[in-house]
Amino acid sequence: MALMIPPVKLKWLEHLNSSWITEDSESIATREGVSVLYSKLLANKEAVLLPQQVLCLKGPQLPDFERESLSSDEQEHYLDALLSSQLALAKMVCSDSPFAAALRKRVLVLQRIFYALSNKYHDKGKVKQQQHSPENNSGSADLHSVSERPRSSTDALIEMGVRTGLSLLFALLRQSWMMPPPPSPGGGPGGNINLCNDVIHTAIDVVSSLPPLSLANESKIPPMGLDCLAQVTTFLKGVTMPNSGADILGRRLASELLLGLASQRGSLRYLLEWIEMALAASAVVSTMEQNKVLQNQEGLIGYDCFMNILMQMRRSLGSSADRSQWREPTRTSDGLCSLYEASLCLFEEVCRMASDYSRTCVSPDSIQTGEAPVVSETCEVYVWGSNSSHQLVEGTQEKILQPKLAASFADAQTIEAGQYCTFVISSDGSVRACGKGSYGRLGLGDSNNQSTLKKLTFEPHRAIKKVSSSKGSDGHTLAFTTEGEVFSWGDGDYGKLGHGNSSTQKYPKLIQGPLQGKVVVCVSAGYRHSAAVSEDGELYTWGEGDFGRLGHGDSNSRNIPTLVKDISNVGEVSCGSSHTIALSKDGRTVWSFGGGDNGKLGHGDTNRVYKPKVVETLQGMFIRKVCAGSQSSLALTSTGQVYAWGCGACLGCGSSEATALRPKLIEELATTRVVDISIGDSHCLALSHDNEVYAWGNNSMGQCGQGNSTGPITKPKKVVGLDGVAIQQISAGTSHSLAWTALPRDRQVVAWHRPYCVDLEESTFSHLRSFLERYCDGINSEIPPLPFPSSREHHNFLKLCLRLLSNHLALALAGGVATSILGRQARPLRNLLFRLMDSSVPDEIQEAVIETLSVGATMLLPPLRERMELLHSLLPQGPDRWESLSKGQRMQLDIILTSLQDHTHVASLLGYSSPADGPEVLSSGPGFTASPDGTYSTTAGHPDTHLAEILMKTLLRNLGFYTDQAFGELEKNSDKLQQGTSSSDSSQPAHLHQLLCSLQKQLLAYCHINSVTESSSSVALLHKHLQLLLPHATDIFSRSATLIKESSWNGSIQEKLQDVIYVSAAGSMLCQIINSLLLLPVSVARPLLSHLLDLLPPLDRLNRLLPAASPLEDQELQWPLHGTSDFAEPASGMSLPQPALSWVWLVDLERTVALLVGRCLGGMLQGAPTSLEEQDTAYWLKTPLFSNGLEMDIPQLDTCISSLLEAALSGNEEQKPFDCTLRPDLSVLVDLALGSSKEPANSLWINMQDYAISKDWDNASLSNESLLDTVSRFVLAALLKHTGLIGQACGEGRYQPSKSLAEVYRSVYKVRNRLLACKNMDFIQTRSSSRERRISDNQDSLDMDPQEHSFTRTIDEEAELEERADREREEGHQEQDDEEEDREHEVMTAGKIFQCFLSAREVARSRDRERASSSTGLGSSSVSRSGGGGGGGGGEEDAILSQEGRRGSTGLTGPGPVHSSL
């Protein structure tokens, strides 16, 4: 018989976690869905099938019953063997039926998904917080440190002079403008005014003579200079307004100077301030126009001045726009233009530049092929380093020691510096090359050196996207096209060209084989090997295999691209001299393999690694780029920090001899936000966010651009001579370097600042918000707000504001910048945008608002807690509330639900990870970083799940509304034969459903992986959730059954019902939960048993009405006869007809619920394991006297006993021994022990005494023995408690107690009489020390003293007489009873009881004297004999007895029970 699923060995592969997280775990509900996921497990070899156990059909060897006579024991043995073999056979067959096979697949798949979720999103203390640079713009950290330097007295004097000089100048200028001009003969303006305007003119001339962006790097300007700039701009802003007192020319000159300063400072903030000023001044001019008080030439600016500044900005950045599209202000006859037009023109230009930049920074995946590339007007390329083979296309072959502008490279889009050669890709995808040509590495058809750039030909013709050329060995080159095909050329040793041979290839040749049909997104040429990454995350390597650099687990070379099987989801690769580094698509994982000498693999050792191995140090960071050099490696994080490992000056740590076996932060660049890195053979380049280039490493050919070629540069240093050049890309060759200004098409790290158009800081968002708030008022009125002449211009301005805002939000997201960049602007911006959504704005504006919201949703969202509260207030509390939500509210709800679906947020919502993961969170996609909030801290290992509980309850309720609505529709239309879809269809439940499913999945994953106990807050949350969900599901199944019954003639109802149930909470969601509960300890599911039992009947009723149940049952029963060997085949059975097939999942759900119920019940039948106390007192619990078991739930037992003892010794009836209220039966026993006169306690005591007198047990004449009575009362109370006879004792007559009650009375009197005997012995012993020795020598003897027997004989004899008749009836048990009686006598010696009694009395006395706590007395009392009179304590006697019992003595009252009885 073939089994369906053979046993499997599980081995989860870490790198596949990401792909498992994205799988829809709810698809396990159907057998087809789970089969797909299970086959993925098999395909990835995460589940390996083991050899199948052979099923032993041969039963146990039985004897020949006819010939042999067997004893009853042997018969039992054979019966057991037969039963066991039958059970094993049944288990084997049943556990491999189609349902069992599907169930096993489900459980395995869920385990895999839970492992992936837990591993990736739940904190285990292993993920390091990546330190990130302070969020400053353009070196404000440096600025801060500059201002902190101690100032000398000279500095102070200079500052004083400058400040006072400025103040004086401003005062003089104001005064000159205010004074009436003296009459001049020509009737022209007065001399004073000319003086003011001359001063401003001079300033304008100075500013315009400066090179572009001279004031851009504020870290280089001393604080005093910044202070002066601030004062000057404030003064000039005041002057520009028409009512400032300045004349028209003064106002015009002031606005020109302001613009000149703003463009030199190069920051978007200053340009926005100028636009704000220009609009405000224009508005005043418009008002004056309306009031007819306008002077001529008011509100104008010099046309040439403005256009010069605009052209300078365009030249600096290379704008993408066509000249015909450039908007220019209208020039008046006297060479002026309107301030309003100039401001709009400038704003459009800034927005266009920001859009261009933004398009280059989105992830490369989102750039569609064929999209018009962003082309710079001009590209400036700077070259430096070795020119030995004309690789820098300079006439001389001398090395170039500092950057030199190279005109011949001008139209470059991308450049690759190789081994003494350079490749230039133009914007049209053509490639040109120059430099060393040996082995055909240039691809020009020969091996000659090339002193000028020459174009390569590609057959077939293709546009090339990227080139990678080796930095060492004999030189080979790879290139991939815009379609993702790969060409290679150059030296072919080791098969590194991938053409299946080792031939040199002098023209580019297309690589066929395994890469055919693959879309390649990254290539890298190492020294002797090559690598490529495909769009679907596969890594291929080929060439020299020594040291394991190809990652295939061996040292063999490969001459065609070969898939590296051990990793997936790869995004980028870099090949070094003998090692390879790969980076995952999401930036969370870096692998390295190959030669480990000098620690260049980063694993903490120098071993070779033959298969990809994760670089542990970089776990928990978001890595943007990796580079492999000859003996070192680099990684760039999303926060712009650089890590290096390996050896030599490339580590940038200040020594050229240093070695780092693990990635180490380059401290010198820690405060610089690096956006790109490149590594040559032994030198490195880095590009900062403010366009500065740093270099370090080998500088023998001047490749570090320091103006000299002395020894190695051991710490990153700025390359000289590039100040003011907006460098955008860099490339390091073997010994030469290039930097150029063309925008990259796939920038990995976003610059926070780009001259004129991008500033990721709060001030930008603040300006844009104030623009929107100010100019959105009256958006629908006929007359637009001033200064806009028409609604069209007004709306256009608002669209530009929204576009710039949208670009900045997109850049902040792409750059992984924390939400704190918005500062206090997030909430007002969010409210403003949603308000715009709700107001009736023109469609074009509404579209812009929607786009801005969808782009920046995650940035604008409030912290997690606030979001939860917002969600709670927005989610409808009743079924009719959806319609009442406004458009803005719906969108807000949509955005919040979408944002919460991110697994990172779900994990922090449940308290399984800290919500503030640093800015990294955002870089992997739409994400959001909450500010650290105490609410999410996990106290004492229990996450705070309150928020999640509220959210899950609300989501479930909302899903319930939908299901109700759908049922309502079905019930209404059940009498109609119509196929129309339900009107309640809406996209909303998808969000709700996904979020709830995500919460459940992470909750179950946490419970499964962390083996939680019942006390865990996660289990409590799961219980609360399921206590709502299971009754809801029960209700759904009941309604479904009723509906089908009532409309059984309508076939279409079943089909519609299937759709409704499957997406409801009782559908695939419930299937996932029920299957997951099988993975958790039984104790977690058991509290849900009643709900599960309620769920089964309606589910069963529904399945009976549906077509799938009976064919499936037949299939299960017939299965052993027609077993199939194909374990992976969907077990639903292809023979089922379609209507039945779609309901198979529901039958499976019923069976799984039944299995879960069975597990819960099975566990309950076994009972809980025995406690320590029960194990200690096992002997006593078997006796009839302690048949009532142990009292386990009294808190602070010792304290209770002590207070009881004090009450007993005080003799005060009113004293309350316990603070807490006792159960009625317990309070009766306490009253009895304390000798209370209350009923029924008093009657119990009198009943026993009367019974004793009737039996003539108490014949001793006693005087003043109240202590003995107290002991007797305690013993009686304890025994009544432990035998559970209190109810019987209260109800029985005085003289006819039951047999067990009489036994209790007899035991009390045994103790009583033996204590009396001990007292008499004490009296005798004071006279005879020899007697004392004899007693202590024979403590265990029964024949201790004839007098002792005289007290106890009558009781024992009477007991014997009473029981003899019973014993005769119970034949066969006599010996056993005698043995027990003997054992009782044997262990219960008078000496030991007496010792306990005396010790207890001594302790009671010392307690009275010291008034110390009872527990101390009990704990430290030693059991020794000591003389003394009365005043002992019965309660303590019990307690001591209990302690003695634990040490080996076993008095009647037993060890544990006495202690716990009262």
UniProtKB/TrEMBL annotation:
Pfam family, one: WD40_RLD
Biased composition annotated in UniProt, kind: Polar residues: 130-140
Record's keyword annotation contains Metal-binding: no
Keyword Repeat set for record: yes
UniProt biased composition (Low complexity): 1413-1425
Keywords for the protein's UniProt record, in alphabetical order: Repeat
Region (Disordered): 125-150, 1328-1386, 1405-1462
Biased segments, Basic and acidic residues type: 1346-1375
Residues in RCC1-like domain copies: 374-567
InterPro entries linked to this entry: RCC1-like_dom, RCC1/BLIP-II, Reg_chr_condens, Signaling_Regulatory_Domain
Residues in RCC repeats: 379-428, 429-483, 484-536, 537-586, 588-639, 640-690, 691-743
Name of the protein in question: Probable E3 ubiquitin-protein ligase HERC1 isoform X1
Gene: LOC108880408
